[in-house]
Design goal:
By secondary structure, the protein is an alpha+beta fold. The chain contains five helices and four strands. The mean pLDDT is 88.
């Protein structure tokens, strides 16, 4: 964040400045110079499976990431992830938590005790126009919420319980 948005810290925000960190890999034996991919990766989760893949070692079940090998070869597999899931767990400011689901075009941020956020990242890359309350955004918001629940289930996210599940699956959230 280094001064962007008049902030000098990267605490409880899910701006792309914080969650969309570029990744550069140099491995001339495997990666053609100049290869660029815009696929959704989770840097620290995808690097271990990639290294294992290079050495021909099967990925253990407990690793959550995916090998970047196809992307580094210039391909995006048809079954490559459509979303990136990110969490903030209140380490700096007590119990304030957030969950984010980012696709190529959209970003949904769930704030359990505050308003939700929905941004069209193509039309609003600076995340200034929150579309979560717009009536025509409801179908997309509902889909993003359900996908977020699936990600939380897959990752074993401890904040997913009866109350938070109802917020996401049924939109049962008090208006602010």
């Amino acid at each position: 964040m280094a001064g962007n948005r008049h902030m000098i810290d990267k605490h409880y925000v899910m701006y792309d400045d914080v969650v969309r960190v570029p990744l550069a890999i140099r491995y001339p034996a495997e990666i053609k110079a100049g290869t660029v991919s815009h696929a959704l990766v989770t840097n620290m989760l995808d690097i271990p499976p990639t290294i294992l893949d290079w050495f021909g070692i099967p990925k253990p079940d407990f690793l959550q990431g995916e090998s970047l090998q196809p992307l580094l070869g210039g391909e995006v597999p048809e079954n490559w992830r459509k979303y990136v899931y990110s969490t903030y767990n209140g380490q700096q400011f007590g119990l304030y938590m957030q969950r984010m689901l980012r696709s190529y075009n959209w970003k949904y941020i769930w704030n359990p005790t505050d308003i939700d956020e929905l941004y069209n990242m193509q039309q609003d890359p600076n995340e200034l126009n929150n579309l979560a309350a717009a009536a025509d955004s409801k179908p997309l918001l509902d889909r993003m919420r359900l996908e977020l629940v699936r990600c939380m289930e897959k990752e074993g996210d401890g904040i997913l319980n009866g109350w938070t599940r109802r917020q996401l699956e049924k939109g049962n959230k008090l208006p602010f």
